[in-house]
C-alpha cells in the first residue's frame, strides 16, 4: 500500500508566509439550506487567505455540483473528492485545472444515503453516510483517482452497514455515521455513530481493506457522538457529543483498540451559556489547543490540552454569524464556515474576526494542496 499520509505535514508559518496567499476549497449545501433539493446551483468555491493578515480574497465558484458538503484534497494536489449529500449519495473525483478550477471526472454511488464526511487514509477513501449509517470504502490509484476495481464496477470496494439506536428517539432511531478517523497506529478505522452512541471499529489490512471489528467505545446514552480527534500522546481521544453538548475525553488503549471514558467537559463555557441549545459540530487539535465549533450558541470553544491528555477549562468566543458547521486552522488563523450566515470568516486565537467572504451555505473548508 502506498505510504500516503492522511494530510501532508502542515507548512510552518514562515513557509506559509513565504509562499503568499493560501488557497482554500469551500464545500457547500444547497442555497436554501441543509435538507433542501440539491443540484440547484450550489458547488465548490475557492478563496484565497492572506496568511499575514487573515484577510480573505474574492471567492469564486469553481464548479457546480450537488450538495458538496464535505471535500478533501488528495496530497498530490491534482484531485479533489467531494460528497453529494443526497439520497442516494455519491462521491465525485474532480481534476484540478491549471486555472484553479475543478473538472468532474468520475462519480460513484456510495451505497448509502446522505454522505457527510470523507477520510483519506493512505490510498483509500472512506465515506460516512449519515442517514443510514453506511461506511463505504473506495481504493485509490497513486495519483488520487479511483482504483481500477472501482472504475470497473462503478461501486465502492466495500460497503458496511450497522444496526442499533439510542434513547433520543427523534435523532437516534437508527445508526447515523457522522465521521471517520484512522487510529494513530493506523491499525483501525473508527466511525463516530451519532445514532448508536458508539465508536464503531474496523480492522485495516495491509492493502487498506477493512473488516468489521466490533465497537471501540460506547458513550453514555444520548451522547450522539459526531466528530473526534486524537491527542498528541496517542493515548487519549476527544469525542464531540452533539446531543449532550459535551466533549468526552477517552483513554485510548492502542493494543486493545478500545477507548474508556474518563471525563466530559461542556461545549460552551458558563459565561456564554444560555439561549439557543448548543449543538457541537467539528473539533480539531491545534498544537496544545482543542478547538470546537458549537452551533446554536454560535461560538468557538478552545480547551488547553495538558501533557497528560486532560482538558483544561474551555474558553468560548462568540462568532459574528450563525451555525459554525466546520473549521480549519491555516497559518495560525481559524477559518470557519458559518452555514446559515452564508459566510466564511477568519478569527484569531482570541476569537476576533479578521477576514470574511460571502459564500452561500458553506459547510466545509479544506486547504488546496
Q: Would you write up a description of this structure?
A:
- By secondary structure, the protein is mainly beta.
- It is 3% helix and 48% strand.
- It contains 2 helices and 28 strands.
- It has helices at 13-18, 148-153, and strands at 22-28, 43-49, 60-64, 71-73, 79-84, 90-96, 102-109, 115-121, 124-129, 135-139, 158-160, 177-182, 188-193, 198-204, 210-218, 225-230, 236-241, 246-253, 258-266, 279-286, 289-295, 299-304, 315-318, 324-330, 333-338, 343-347, 353-358, 362-367.
- A 4-stranded antiparallel β-sheet has the order 3-2-1-28, with no helix packed on it. The chain has a 4-stranded antiparallel β-sheet with strand order 4-5-6-7, with no helix packed on it.
- A hairpin with a 4-residue loop joins strand 17 (236-241) and strand 18 (246-253).
- The longest helix is centred in the N-terminal third of the chain and has 6 residues, at 13-18.
- The protein is globular, with a radius of gyration of 19 Å.
- The two termini are 21 Å apart.
- The model is unreliable at 1-12 (pLDDT under 50).
Name the features:
48% strand, mainly beta, globular, 4-stranded antiparallel sheet, 369 residues
Structural class: mainly beta
Q: Strand fraction band?
A: over 45%
Query: C-alpha Rg, in Å?
Result: 19 Å
Proportion in helices: under 10%
- What average pLDDT do the residues reach? 94
State the low-pLDDT regions, or none: 1-12
> If strands are numbered along the chain, what order do they take across the biggest sheet?
3-2-1-28
Largest sheet: 4 strands, antiparallel
- Work out the helix count: 2
SSE series: HEEEEEEEEEEHEEEEEEEEEEEEEEEEEE
Q: Which outline best applies?
A: globular
Record field, number of beta strands: 28
Q: Measure the end-to-end span.
A: 21 Å
